[in-house]
Design brief:
3-stranded antiparallel sheet, 114 residues, alpha+beta, 8% strand, 3 strands
């Protein structure tokens, strides 16, 4: 599992994690598309924004390996702002390649690109 050096481990001042420390011994947690409903808490929206901003600052528009990025946090963006960069895509692989869909991400999180 690739560890993304320099990527923030969590949202500052909270317990919302962005990365994991080691591979899951029970198997890789698959990436799934999670629905973001309008009534989500403001803190959850803020965490999504901060995570998107960290992804953009670290990877930009280039494909990146899933590596040690937290599957739960990534799943909130997966299928919309973050999409597979390879076909076939294995959602249960730490080596899976992803890419930011810049147009969708800018529409969803304009503040992340300021």
């Amino acid at each position: 599992m690739l560890k993304h050096r320099g990527f923030p481990g969590r949202m500052p001042g909270t317990d919302f994690q962005f990365t994991i420390r080691r591979p899951n011994p029970k198997g890789v947690t698959p990436l799934t598309r999670r629905e973001r409903f309008r009534d989500r808490k403001n803190v959850d929206k803020r965490v999504d924004l901060m995570f998107m901003q960290a992804l953009w600052e670290h990877f930009g528009d280039q494909p990146f390996e899933r590596g040690n990025l937290d599957a739960g946090r990534l799943s909130w963006l997966f299928g919309r702002e973050v999409i597979p960069a390879e076909d076939p895509f294995d959602p249960e692989s730490y080596e899976a390649l992803l890419v930011i869909d810049e147009a969708v991400a800018r529409a969803s999180f304009p503040e992340a690109f300021d």
